[in-house]
Amino acid sequence: MEVIADLVGHQDRVWCVAWNKTGTLLASCGGDKTIRIWGKEGSNWVCKTILTDSHTRTIRRVAWSPCGQYLASGSFDATTCIWDRRGGEFECTATLEGHENEVKSVAWSPSGNYLATCSRDKSVWVWEVDEDDDDFQCAGVLTAHTEDVKNVIWHPEREVLASCSYDNSLMFFVEDSDDWTGSGKLVGHESTVWDLSFNHNGSRLVSCSDDKTMKVWQEYSPGNSEGVPTPDEVAKWKCVCTLSGYHQRAIYSIDWCPLTGLIATACGDDAIRVIREDETALDRRNAPSFNLMDTRHRAHNEDVNCVSWNPKESGLLASCGDDGSVKLWQVTST
User: What phi and psi values does residue 29 have, to the nearest 5 degrees?
Assistant: First the structure.
């Protein structure tokens, strides 16, 4: 794992880095209440633009729409801003209000028809998107978690929403007869679940926690050959692997690369780790094995807050941390 760019500019800790769908732009956000958009000029990565004056407190998360024309930002000021760049420049065209306090995450569905947000107020909101009118209507307020909801992500191929929380659990939500409803709960972590990530086709999910472990969950559809029960004909998720002993402190971020199958983690011990599945395992579906492939100690001078794989360029990884920097890494499978 070699650092190929150290992107400096933020004036406070950086909470999140997010690639657009084509992998040509990287958005970052943080405690300085700004969003920076990074892109390549020649062989160098540079700051293309800085988005300011939208939020009054820390910006915790940014997410690109599938079409790449919109960027959503969630903030500790309890709002979510929608940035539209169809006119060439980014313009804040909508501010979504409703959460009682800090917005912790934002995520677009794969179709772009929905936006999900979650908050310290223990709720997950689903917004219906009308891009033509820059209109966002609340389609559901989900209160299945009993504590602060840390993150929300969408299944890569279906309109299924997953969340994780300070209550140590993960939840799934689906639309049923125009209502959004809980469709499953995963328990097993012994402390806060900070992040979660689907694999390339959504048949697996990996989660990371304050308990210093990673868990890999496998989906079992109705009629599965293993005979795993699926009550009400709803897919069942089951933990098939727990990884412990690799991380010295809480694991804050995890990302499963859709191109290589490598899993990257960001940790409170200032390190980035890359995990690889053992392809020689006898039963990879039901009893997979994962091994530590690489560790970069002191990847940042303080906590590493987020890692994100480029969706198009194999092995290109972005990270950010409490030290205020954004870094790009080239990871080579050995």
Answer: -150, 160
